[in-house]
Amino acid sequence: MSLTTVSSASFLNIPRVFGLGRAASPPPSPPRTRTRTRKRQSPGSRPARTRDNRRAGRPRSASASTLSSLISNRPPPTNEPRTSWRESLRELDKQPKSNTNRVDKWRLGVADAVIAEAGNSADVATTAPTVGDSVRSSSVGESRATESHDLQSLSDEDIFALTQNIKNEEASRRPLVSPISPLWELRLEFSPTADTTDSGVSDYEGPSANVLRKIDWLRTHGGWQAIRRTRGDGDCFYRSLAFAYIEKIMTAPEPGLAVATSLSHLESTLPLLERAGFQKIVFEDFYEAFAELIQQVVPAPGKLPLTNESLLEQFQNPEISNSIVVFLRLLTSAYIRLSPEDDFTPFLIHPDTGEMVDVRTFVETFVEATGREADHPQIMALSRALRVRIEVAYLDNSSGKQLEDGTLPIDFVKFSPEGSDEDGTKPVVLLYRPGHYDTLEEKIDP
After folding, report:
1. Mean per-residue pLDDT, 281-298
2. What SS3 state is found at 111?
């Protein structure tokens, strides 16, 4: 799958591509340059709004709401044959483009994620196989066997796309963000026969012995009792970070100060995005999804405050959750592009080939595209862009000096940018297993 670039002008024609106004209506006039005259209010002074309310209220032609429609759960009108999302986006990319902005894989990825989420309820349910299922399964197997002969003719990008589709299909069976589960459940994945429901530690045998020792160290010495899992779709770092970022604001000694500090800094990052070449019409809805959720921690009078249950519900909503992921990816990209003083160049390495890549190639391929895992450069950039302390616990099978009780201390990599402790909140702590990030929790019941 080759990467493409589309211009902001392409977004203006999205309603026509998706059949949102073609029937019995004249073709729209050529898009005109839109000039904003209203003064942007800060997120703290603007009342919280939801996307659905804005779309149901006043129509916004030629605005970012057309892009937001790509990540909503609402199906297109049924007065004409439905066009697949991929086919429509490919048709859109064929149109003339000018003044391009990089919105390729994350635009397609957000739409795909919502489609997978919307059709997932039927896949999760398991039923007994029938004769028809066996026949279809056999046909699928024969088809895959035939297709395997053509794998050698595929490019690296095609192979990556096929692998990513399989990965997304398997990952889609797990919620975007799951409720908290105790660490002993994670331990059972590496030692299924062990009795780990108590606080004791035992049975350090087998190929995953060091993993078990480190999990037990987290429980007995590290003060961590639970884990909050996120879907392993390549966006797990950004999704876990966003959830834990808002969660730490909720548990701050002074939530009001934490909200004000966070919103003030978050709004100050918008000029950074514009200097990096991202137009406001592209990122403003994604930014507002994040800002409005933070606002709910200390809501306006008469509004209900954000709770752990409602925060989880919001992050299980594909439209909100994926919009926040997109905003954080764009912010990470902008920071890497425009921060020469940090000199990210020595760390920009292709994860598959091990070769050095330039800044533009790195951010367009491994930051802006959804489904691409984050590594040290992305974590460092986003930590500094958000001014948030991040600690990553690396859970692997490496050896080390054991303690008297047989446990093995786990390595924490800490990212502490300047000014990250101004709001008095705790750091965001993530648990990394090769290829995946989850959130560590101090309590089983938050």
Report:
1. 95
2. helix
Residue 51 has pLDDT above 50, yes or no: no
Q: Quickly tell me which residue has 């959804």 as its tokens.
A: 370
For residue 415 the two structure tokens come to 């990212």
Give the C-alpha separation, 280 to 306, whole Å. Answer: 28
Q: Which long-range contacts (CB under 8 A, 24 or more apart) does 160-169 make?
A: 160/1, 161/1, 164/234, 164/371, 167/232, 167/233, 167/234, 167/371, 168/112, 168/113, 168/116, 168/233, 168/371, 169/116
**β-strand partners of 228:** 180, 439
358 occurs within a structural domain:
yes
Question: Does the residue 128 lie in any domain?
Answer: no
**CB neighbourhood size of 3 (10 A):** 13
Q: How many Cα atoms within 13 Å fall on the side-chain side of residue 344?
A: 27
Residue 89 pLDDT: 45
Contact criterion met (CB below 8 Å) for 387 and 417: yes
286 pLDDT above the threshold of 60: yes
Whether 197 and 317 share a structural domain: yes
Q: 238: closest CA among 348, 360, 163, 327?
A: 327
Q: Percent of the chain at pLDDT above 70? A: 57
Assess if residue 151 is contained within a domain: no
Burial classification of residue 225, based on how many CB atoms lie within 10 Å of its CB (0-12 exposed, 13-18 middle, 19 or more buried): middle
106 and 185 in a single domain? The answer is no
Domain of residue 374: give its range. Answer: 177-441
201 and 328 part of one domain: yes
Task: Return the pLDDT at 416.
Answer: 87
Residue 163: partners with Cβ closer than 8 Å, 6 or more residues away: none
Residue 159 lies in a domain: no
Amino acid at 278: F
Q: Using CA atoms, how far apart are residues 200 and 91, in angstroms rounded to an integer?
A: 60
Q: Which of 51 and 307 is assigned the larger pLDDT? A: 307
Q: What is the pLDDT of residues 106-155, one digit of tens each?
A: 444 445 555 555 555 444 333 334 434 443 444 444 444 444 445 566 66
Domains identified in the chain, total number: 2
